[in-house]
Structure formats: C-alpha cells, structure tokens
Amino acid sequence: MKPTLFQRAKTWLVNLWTTADEVARHKAVERVEDELEELEYIFALLSQGAFIGMPSPPVQISLDLLPDMEKDLILLMERVETANEPLSRLFSVFDIS
C-alpha cells in the first residue's frame, strides 16, 4: 500500500523533529563537556597553584592529590600553550561568528 500524502508529511515531520532534537542534545552535551573541562582546569589550578606561586592548599594535600590528577595536569599543560590568548578559548567554545 502506497503511503498517502498525509503519512509522508507526518513521517517527514517526525524525522525533522528527531534530527533537530539530536542536534540540540549534541550541542548541549558539548557545552556540558566544555564546562566540565573548565571546572577540572580550575580545580587543578587551585589545588596545584603552589607550583606557579598562587595561594593553594598545604603542599601535603596537593602532593596527595597528585597521583589522581594526571588528566588535570595534562589539561594544565595544554592551557599553558594558549595562555597568551585567553579569549580565543572562549570564542572557540561559544559559536561566535
């Protein structure tokens, strides 16, 4: 049985809605991942700030956290490369064009 015009239009609208929903969810997940990365960076900066001269928790606490912060330290090293242009990171996170 051949689908009617109404059924084809309904299928097209459902597919359009599903695609738009997936795009919106993907963008939302990207924003949450960016926010999580930023929070991890801030935590690493606050907990290991003694190494760059910032006020931080006692060194013993920082050293105790060190084995669990491999990912955060890698993130800190990546951020050092872009430290000269802090707005570029912001512009890359938000789609400003």
Spans of at least 5 consecutive residues with low confidence: none
**Amino-to-carboxy terminus distance:** 48 Å
The ordered string of helix (H) and strand (E) elements is HHHH
Molecular shape: elongated
Instruction: State the helicity in percent bands.
Output: over 70%
**Multimeric status of the protein:** single chain
In short:
The protein is mostly helical.
Keywords:
single chain; 97 residues; mainly alpha; 4 helices; 72% helix; 0% strand; elongated
Give the helices and strands, then pairings.
Blueprint: H1 5-47, H2 59-65, H3 70-81, H4 86-93
What would your notes on this structure say?
There is one protein chain. This protein is mainly α and 97 residues long. Helices cover 72% and strands 0% of the residues. The protein has helices at 5-47, 59-65, 70-81, 86-93. The longest helix has 43 residues, at 5-47.
